[in-house]
Amino acid sequence: MSTEIPELIDIGANLTHDSFDRDRDAVMERAQVAGVGRMIVTGASRDGSPKALSLAQAHPNVLYATAGIHPHHATEYDDECDALLRNLASHAEVVAVGECGLDYFRNFSPVDAQRTAFAGQLSIAVDQKKPVFLHQRDAHDDFVAILGEQIVDLVGGVAHCFTGGPKEMNEYLAMGLHIGITGWVCDERRGHDLRDAVPQLPLERLLLETDAPYLMPRDLPEKLPARRNEPCVLPHVLQAVARLMGRDPDEVASAARRNTERLFKLGA
């Protein structure tokens, strides 16, 4: 493990993605060498969430999991799926409910189905006393309205893969959410709003993630062999965040790790 910075925790890695099937162990090893000692595997579908739990159970104290239905898969959410998610969320390795939320960018699922699945998963998080792993794209107002109905009963949550600007960020902060920052912050073309927001982000609400295999940082000096994002890239995201915050990377890394351990109740 790298001694240059404190241990990093990737709060959002889609390690069940089929692009990792051939070299998942090598991906995890590269993460460890880079200083990314622990990772939370995102569960985002009826099939994917059980796989995330199984992967976490196979790698105790290194991998953890979330269990949820991404808005793209909202039509999967029914009574049987609700029962499945409740069962998954009861496991210690599942540290959050989600990925859940709203995505009106492409509307792969009907809006009404998205809203129903989102509200249902918030209820699961309340009942299981676990934080929520949240997704929002082009649906801010509805997202805030639905979340606001249950926010006082939730034990916390993270705006995963946040790409908005200061106004959206401050609304989420006012609701008590943490903010997950990915390699989007490294994109000089599309990341302007996020780059404006990060300097205003309180250090105690920062979480770091790659969203691997997605969101490869645009300014990464050397592309990975498979041309896919990996958790080992997280130190590069850290450096970008630290520059924007005007803080030492060690300070930012330590804060992000403490925040992650506290929100998801991970052992230090």
Could you spell the SSE succession in H and E letters?
EHEHEHEHEHEHEHEHH
Described by strand count, sense and barrel closure, the largest sheet is: 8 strands, parallel
Gyration radius, in Å: 17 Å
Q: What is the average of the pLDDT values?
A: 95
Number of DSSP-assigned strands: 8
Distance between the termini: 16 Å
What is the strand content?
A: 15-25%
Q: Please state the structural category.
A: alpha/beta
Coarse morphology = globular
Strand arrangement across the biggest beta sheet:
1-2-3-4-5-6-7-8
Q: What's this model, at a glance?
A:
By secondary structure, the chain is of the alpha/beta class. The protein is about 40% helix and about 15% strand. Helix 3 packs parallel to helix 4 and helix 4 (about 110-130) packs parallel to helix 5 (about 140-150).
Produce the secondary structure layout.
Layout: E1 8-13, H1 24-34, E2 36-41, H2 48-58, E3 63-67, H3 79-89, E4 94-103, H4 111-128, E5 132-137, H5 140-148, E6 157-159, H6 166-174, E7 178-181, H7 192-197, E8 206-208, H8 234-245, H9 249-264
Parallel strand pairs: 1-2, 2-3, 3-4, 4-5, 5-6, 6-7, 7-8
